[in-house]
Amino acid sequence: MVCYPTFGGSGVVATELGVALAERGHEVHFITYKQPVRLDLISPNIYFHEVQVPQYPLFKYQPYELALSSKLVDMVRYYGIDMMHVHYAIPHAYAGYMAKKMLEDEGIIIPMVTTLHGTDITLVGNHPHYKPAVTFSINNSDKVTSVSESLKKDTLRLFSINNEIDVVPNFIDMKKHENTYTDCQRDLMALPEERIITHVSNLRPVKRIIDIVRIFAKIQEDIPSKLLIVGEGPEREPAQELVDSLGLTQKVVFLGNSNEVDKILCFSDLFLLPSEKESFGLAALEAMASGVPVISSNAGGLAEVNTHGISGYLSNIGDVDDMAKNAISILKDDETLARFKQQAKAAAAKFDTNNIVPFYEEIYVQALNKTLVK
Length: 374
Ligand code: GMT
Fold this sequence. Notes:
This protein is α/β, with parallel strands linked by helices. 43% of the residues lie in helices and 15% in strands. The longest helix is centred in the last third of the chain and has 21 residues, at 353-373.
């Protein structure tokens, strides 16, 4: 499993997939530059190998891909690994392909599955400086998956792809989101009469954090509430400035990066995700699994996750008024809120780990068969 180890959807999906596969009896090796944030290493069948990049002053840019592909070669040789699964095309699919070719030279044939996550296609990978390498790596993967139908369409529209793309949606372990907290300690965050509205992300411009503050400003004119913003990123400062200028400093809490998102979701009443682009919206699915309805934009694959009028509502990107109106309609009375909470949880259940991980196992079998035929 090759992934980004930091906070961010693709790394979370890779980690959860690895953990689920290990539980199903597969031996899973994580190969990345740091221990993935959600990975417990003291678990059966799980290994972590750190990619180290020696710093050399001659290089303006240290060659991570080189170190990663060399590490992949070493680990495949040493542990007899049967399959590489790389998450996020850049630079993982590229490094994986190089490792595959180096191993082929030694007579070791190993298939590579590439999972496309979103910004590797819609924002970064699409840049002319990366596009040829990304196109090549996708076309030369043994199997390619994307996390939504929308991302598949974007990939086919933006790149010249001659490989098949299978859609395997992201997933969630519903068991882990059963409310195990007898006391969510919501009183630490809000007064009894206040609703709690939450956003979790890496606070990049694509998440439209300013919209979140504006939506919240409108909601709290009608309904006493608190806004919790979880995560770190470049939009934190401008958002904080707007919060202060709107006189909402006592109403908005910036919690920074957190390993306790499930606890935060436990006392949340509503989740906001008004993104500019969102291939899937794992954060929305996590909220729904915890019984938190979602007010989102209709960008990318969000409509495949958040069902309008059931698990929450969708609006056009930037339509702050509509999002605030929909939020108020959910939060206005306890009965409606309870109904949406229950519907959000039920809608999340179709993405349960047990329903989705077998698709990846099937993809692995297909990739292995493909390389056997070659
Ligand atoms: O947008 C993020 O928060 C990070 C990014 C990533 O690669 O970690 O997330 C992308 O992958 C997630 C997991 O598949 C998806 O749930 C997110 O929708 C997707 N982000 C975007 O498309 C902007």
